[in-house]
Amino acid sequence: MKLNIRVSWPAWLGMNSTADIVADTFAALWYEVITNIEYQSVIKWWLNHFDVNISDTNRSLSKYADMLVVFDDKNIESNLPTLREGAFIISNKKFIEKVTTKLIDLSKFKVLDIEINDKYDNTYLLWILFKLLWLSVETSFQSIEHTFAKKWPEIVEKNKKIVEDIYKNYDLKEVKSYNLWKVWEAKKVSFGNSMIAYWAIANWLEFYSAYPMTPASTILTEVINSKKVPYLQAEDEIAVINAALWASFTGARSMVWTSWGWFALMTEALSFALQAEIPIVAVLAQRAGPSTGTPTCLEQGDMNFALNPTFWDFEHIVLVPSTMEDWYYASGLALNLAQKYQTVVIVLIDKQFAEGKSSFTELKTPWIDRWKLIDNPSTDYKRYELTEDGISSYVKVGTVDGDFMAPSYEHDEYWATTEDSEMKVLMTEKRAKKLQDFFKKEWIKWYEVYNKDAKKMLVTTSFITYTALDFIKDNPDYGLIVIKFLKPLDERLRDELTWKQEVIFAEHNYSWQLETHLTDKLWLKYINWLKISHLRKYDLMPFYIEDFEKLIK
User: What domains can you pick out in the chain, each with its CATH number?
Assistant: First the structure.
């Protein structure tokens, strides 16, 4: 069973909370849920929609909706091209009449309308949907109580009364209703930014700083609401990154979160962090550009920037989580890796991941690992001591005998500025050594292979993973490789691809950034029999299952 329910609403009239009720309700009934929200960058009105894809098997996104819960005539018209034939349209009667007055034919669809004379449009329409899906009154009440728990009791009771009236009196016009009931234990639903906040808190985040910027903004809200982590909402991204570096200098596990051009403002401070070997985790949420671009929409055009985020000759770590469960673990790992290797760790996500919701079950988190943090340094403590692995011990500020500075100039083992040629060579090699043989040191293999024996392999990252997995489930001629570390790159991946017939890169940018990076680093273009092709989207929309189905046509 697969079902795509679309809520389409002008901004500020409850679209998100209505769709959230749908997503939460079906996850509570055990079903797999994955969502996609599309909204325009105006403060009010315009055309917006929120898709809730429900399945009893795999999570994936579809371009076409089976049911449209819609507030006004403009959103009805805008959604007609992407409604399946026979789809349900659930709306206030006056908006249906406006559409038909314009001689727009709705005969291909099943219209369920109702005359609404108060401000509770979303409540009436939502519970018509739930009656159509044959959800019980008790399930509806649970959703109301959960969603409106912080509102006045009379609002909760008003919503319950509407539900009772809909279930008792509303005529479904002889259409066939669905029969969805609780299958197994409840799942939970969350969105990427919320998961980021809570994995970080679970992994002992000790300082967070940010300047709000779509699609990165809501993580700051989640951190603030947790009341567990010291945070700073600064005046700009330069202040944000420098505040976080100061916190990290003291020994705290620190993180910043930003997007796009505001990440560009951090580049000088990132270079300083690499020179002074100050750990920092920077989460970069991609959106469509260039310049101001289309700021509330999806693109993956910042991969090259994440791989080369600042000036100088340097090595750092770039993680790309692909599922909610992955997020929770990988981002806790990011805090560990930043401290362990005393370097910059960039966690690269996109708008789809930041704001998309998904059901999930078990979450795992790594052990807290501060690596070479010491409590009792010698009286001859060398903060930048030359070691075999390139990693020096570090202390928390105030530790007895642990005095040091974090210079932006080249320095010796203690931290004193130097222009000595020999010391420059030694320090450059020291910094480079840290991440040599990274995957052997960590004993991790940060890519996943599905349908390993398939001759045609899709290669992708991030939220695209969900829909790609659903595609290969029904098309066993195709396999899937999900990349989770972009830098350092696990070169064992080349062995997975060498004897394949075709490699197809799926990514959201025009310039094939993932394809270019992997083919160059893994020398794939020198494998004569290997066909390299791509699926690329830069139309602001996510990958739908229909995009992958084009491969087999």
Answer: 2-186 (3.40.920.10), 190-360 (3.40.50.970), 372-436 (no CATH), 444-552 (3.40.50.920)
Helix (H) or strand (E) holding 106: none
CB 416 within 8 A of CB 396: no
> Which residue carries 């990514």 as its tokens?
507
Among 47, 43, 53, CA closest to 12? 43
pTM summary value: 0.93
504-518: buried (b, 16+ CB within 10 Å) or exposed (e) per residue?
bbbbbbeeebbbebb
Q: Give, for all 553 residues of the chain, the pLDDT tens digit.
A: 899 999 998 877 778 888 888 998 888 888 899 999 999 887 666 889 999 999 988 899 999 999 999 999 999 999 999 999 999 999 999 999 999 999 999 999 999 999 998 888 888 999 899 989 888 888 778 877 777 776 778 888 888 889 889 989 998 877 766 666 666 677 888 888 888 888 788 888 999 999 888 888 888 888 888 888 999 999 999 999 999 999 999 999 999 988 878 899 999 999 999 999 999 999 999 999 898 888 899 999 999 999 999 988 889 999 999 988 887 777 788 999 999 999 999 999 999 989 999 998 777 777 888 899 999 999 999 999 999 999 999 999 999 999 999 999 999 999 999 999 999 999 999 999 999 999 988 877 789 999 999 999 999 999 999 999 999 999 999 999 999 999 999 989 999 999 999 999 999 999 999 999 999 999 998 999 999 999 999 999 999 999 999 887 7
Phi, psi of 341 (to 5 degrees): -100, 0
HEC secondary structure over 417-449: ECCCHHHHHHHHHHHHHCCCCHHHHHCCCCEEE
All residues at 6 or more sequence positions from 452 whose CB lies less than 8 Å from its CB, including other chains:
479, 496
Residue 81: cis peptide before it, omega within 30 degrees of 0: no
> CA-CA distance, 476 to 381, in Å (whole number)?
59
Q: Where are the beta strands (DSSP E) in 160-204?
A: 188-191
